[in-house]
Design goal:
The structure holds 2 protein chains of 2 kinds. By secondary structure, chain A is an alpha+beta fold. Chain A has 3 domains: 7-82, no CATH class; 91-100 and 115-228, Butyryl-CoA Dehydrogenase, subunit A, domain 2, CATH 2.40.110.10; 244-381, Butyryl-CoA Dehydrogenase, subunit A, domain 3, CATH 1.20.140.10. Chain A has helices spanning 7-22, 31-44, 64-76, 84-97, 100-111, 228-243, 246-261, 274-304, 310-333, 350-360, 370-381; strands at residues 117-120, 136-139, 145-153, 163-169, 180-186, 192-198, 204-217, 221-222, 264-265, 268-269. Chain B is α+β, with helices and mostly antiparallel strands. Chain B folds into 3 domains: 7-119, Orthogonal Bundle (Butyryl-Coa Dehydrogenase, subunit A, domain 1), CATH 1.10.540.10; 122-228, Butyryl-CoA Dehydrogenase, subunit A, domain 2 (Beta Barrel), CATH 2.40.110.10; 231-373, Butyryl-CoA Dehydrogenase, subunit A, domain 3 (Up-down Bundle). Helix content of chain B is 50%, strand content 16%. Chain B is built from 11 helices and 10 strands. Chain B has a 4-stranded mixed sheet with strand order 1-4-5-8. A 4-stranded antiparallel sheet of chain B has the order 2-3-7-6, with no helix packed on it. A two-stranded antiparallel sheet of chain B has the order 9-10. Classes of the chains: A alpha+beta, B alpha+beta.
């Protein structure tokens, strides 16, 4: 064991830093053309546009330490936004279970950030119990297309998505994990209706999506009919690792401290108040530990493969940390935490603080509620058989 | 010792409860909150007619001679519907300051009309730098023969948009954080030199930032003695703490009961959620926090009625527990409702928001713990 970075790693870090520095957005430059150009240049670096993709599909083939460095540096630098749905969620499924034709058809557009994907998993009756899904897909008599009917809920950014990857039920005769089929289809077509859900923070990110007789050609099915659950399960573990968001939390923690220091108290500031300081300290300690839990998990993944059930620990700890940062931001805002709307009163960070906190309550619910995550750890890690999740 | 309400208080309790049930479903609340002035003038008039606005005022001021227990009875029921009408701003804060410090002529010119719902008064005490410290007052009042001249800025003034009069806390002497040297003034809300920036609050109410530039107030409108306003301010904000704590207890009751009901209906993994022990225990915790808050609310309120000075430490204890437990109950209700809990569509989210705001008003949980442990 050795915590120091090797000279190669340090060199890599400097290279990453100078890449970010050299490719910063220039004042007056159009954001979207800068964004596309940035990914193009990252690609020329040897797969930096798709850091997590395997080398076989054009990824950089980094070591866990290099990934860690990348995470740290990207959290600190202003790099273009990226959505996880196509790049981080669907792509691994296509690589593992899609046929070659599907890989060639979908992966390049995902890589070029040309197509926005959304994830059609949760349903009104299938939240934590995802396998309980009821959206029906019926194969036509000639076997060339499916007809999809049903509803999805909590579909993030469905209102701007071009395509959806969707879990559907093709057979309900067996146990509920069987008979699920993984389909891909365009969002902008007749029979698809997207309705916004406004969350407590007052924002529109998630939606309900209704399907009425949506036709999906059979070549848009991933793998075999009825095996979709197996494909999706691996993906959920990827999703859970991503949800921890630790590098971002580290940056947000520093921001939180700066914000608290800007609140003057007597001759000092809010960070001098023992109750507040203790909470920030406890948060930082949890973050230091969780960061290394993630690194250990990455290292074992690099040696073995899938992140596995350890990713549940990361999701549990990581989301709780994110919520605590939000809560402490609200506390730092003091009396101004109750102000709402566009008129910013009080310190600048107070403006979005309370909305951010309210929306952050979602972190311990989506991608598998914390209670379910703990069931998974109990069952898969501790070997306790009488868990509630299946 | 006796925890029984009087017959009159029981009647008031039932009548407020019925009012909330009949008028405060979520849809109606959202509608009222979104329209001007952010509450229903009709409801406010009804509350005046039913005598609720006068409960805690002396009979000679046009009230019914009640006390903080009557306010508790009303506010707890209000908390079950997140009532928007400005009872706290008018009756507890503005009216509370005037009944304690106003001269006879000030009381007579304000209180009867306030109790009849014809006139609105709020209290402007907090400032941008003061955070939760009541004694941190930078707004100045300079004496000038028969009047005072106010300069400065007040923050998060509740219901200022609708107020006809504002009781303003200003400094007449001493340094910025001295308890001595604070005075209260009754000011016309539309006096020359007053500018308001109005905005909605997280819980669907309204507040304002108000600036005062050379605002002239006659000496007759001093509320309480010059330089000695702090004790009035403290008594009024203690009453406000008791009032919003009662409201919080009402809100927590709704949250734990809604959660118990929802988890019995919602099925996942082929069972109602309420079958899962981990969720049962969380609901037991919510219930226990609610009961504990209610106990401390009764304790602090009864002690305050007995002796408002000796009760100070218990009031700090109450506000600490209400802030902490309110947020715990709110977060738990959201968590157990899953995704639906994070939407505007269910009422629990709105109750959670109110509890969050309650923690930030009149000192948060940390602030009162500090005060409590230092006493």
């Amino acid at each position: 064991m050795d915590i120091s970075l090797s000279s190669e790693d340090l060199e890599f870090r400097d290279e990453v830093r100078s890449f970010f520095e050299d490719n910063k957005i220039k004042s007056g430059e159009d954001y979207f053309s800068w964004r596309l150009g940035w990914f193009e240049k990252a690609r020329e670096k040897g797969g930096w546009d798709v850091p997590k993709w395997p080398e076989k599909f054009g990824g950089p083939g980094w070591t866990p330490t290099q990934h860690y460095i990348w995470e740290q540096e990207t959290a600190r630098a202003n790099i273009p936004f990226d959505l996880p749905f196509g790049l981080g969620m669907l792509a691994p499924i296509l690589m593992n279970y899609g046929n070659e034709e599907q890989q060639q058809r979908f992966l390049p557009d995902i890589r070029d950030r040309k197509v926005n994907w959304c994830q059609g998993y949760s349903e009104p009756g299938a939240g934590s119990d995802l396998a309980n899904l009821k959206t029906k897909a019926v194969l036509s008599d000639d076997g060339t297309y499916y007809t999809v009917n049903g509803s999805k809920i909590w579909t993030t950014l469905a209102h701007v998505a071009d395509w959806i990857f969707c879990l559907t039920r093709t057979d309900d005769s067996g146990i509920k994990q069987q008979g699920i089929t993984f389909l891909l289809f365009p969002m902008k077509q007749e029979g698809i209706e997207v309705k916004p859900i406004i969350t407590l923070g007052g924002s529109h990110t998630v939606n309900t999506v209704h399907f009425t007789d949506v036709k999906v050609p059979v070549e848009n099915r991933i793998g075999e009919e009825g095996k979709g659950w197996t494909y999706a399960k691996g993906l959920l573990e990827h999703e859970r690792t991503g949800l921890a968001g630790l590098s971002k939390s580290l940056v947000e923690l520093e921001q939180l401290k700066d914000n608290a220091r800007s609140i003057k108290r007597g001759n000092g500031n809010l960070m001098d108040e023992s109750s507040y300081k203790s909470k920030v300290g406890e948060l930082e300690i949890d973050l230091l530990a969780t960061e290394f839990t993630e690194l250990r998990s990455l290292a074992s993944a690099a040696a073995g493969g899938d992140p596995g059930p350890e990713s549940s620990i990361l999701k549990l700890k990581g989301t709780e940390i994110k919520q605590r940062i939000q809560k402490l931001t609200v506390e730092a805002s003091g009396i101004y935490s109750s102000a709402w709307g566009d008129k910013g009163v009080g310190p600048a960070f107070a403006k979005s603080g309370t909305g951010g906190y309210l929306n952050s309550r979602y972190f311990t619910i989506y991608g598998g509620a914390s209670e379910v995550q703990k069931d998974i750890v109990a069952k898969k890690v501790l070997g306790l058989t009488k868990g509630s999740s299946k | 010792m006796n925890f029984e309400l009087t017959e009159e208080q029981k009647m008031i309790q039932q009548s407020v409860e019925r009012f909330v049930q009949e008028n405060y479903d979520l849809t109606n609340r959202i509608k009222i909150s979104a329209e001007e002035p952010g509450f229903s003038k009709d409801y406010w008039s009804s509350m005046a007619e039913l005598g609720w606005l006068g409960l805690a005022f002396d009979e000679e001021d046009g009230g019914f001679g009640g006390n903080q227990i009557d306010t508790l009875v009303v506010m707890e029921q209000f908390g079950k519907g997140l009532v928007l009408e400005p009872f706290l701003a008018n009756i507890v804060l503005g009216g509370g300051a005037i009944k304690r410090g106003g001269s006879e002529s000030v009381k007579q010119s304000i209180l009867p009309d306030l109790i009849e719902g014809k006139l609105q008064v709020t209290l402007a005490y907090a400032e941008e730098q003061s955070r939760f410290d009541l004694e941190d007052v930078a707004t100045s009042a300079r004496e000038d023969s028969e009047s005072f001249v106010l300069n400065g800025k007040k923050s998060m003034v509740l219901n200022a948009e609708s107020a006809d009069k504002i009781v303003v806390v200003a400094r007449t002497s001493g340094s910025q954080v001295d308890e001595n040297g604070i005075s209260l003034f009754l000011v016309d809300a539309n006096a020359d030199g007053i500018e308001k920036e109005n905005f909605p609050t997280v819980d669907g109410l309204r507040a304002s930032e108000i600036s005062f530039k050379d605002v002239v107030v006659s000496s007759e409108n001093l509320v309480g003695k010059k330089d000695e306003g702090f004790e009035i301010l403290r008594a009024v904000t203690n009453d406000a703490i008791l009032a919003i704590a009662a409201e919080a207890v009402g809100a927590m009751e709704v949250l734990y009961k809604d959660t118990v009901e929802y988890t019995q209906q919602r099925e996942q993994f082929d069972h109602p959620l309420s079958d899962f022990q981990v969720l049962q225990h969380r609901m037991v915790d919510m219930f226990m926090e609610y009961e504990q808050c209610k106990s401390l609310l009764f304790r602090a309120t009864m002690e305050t009625v007995e002796d408002p000075v000796l009760s100070q430490r218990t009031v700090h204890a109450l506000k600490h527990l209400i802030g902490k437990s309110g947020i715990f109950v709110g977060e738990s209700a959201v968590q157990l409702h899953g995704g639906m809990g994070v939407t505007e569509e269910l009422r629990i989210g709105h109750f959670f928001k109110r509890l969050l705001v309650i923690d930030s008003q009149f000192g948060n949980s940390d602030f009162h713990l500090e005060k409590f442990t230092n006493m």
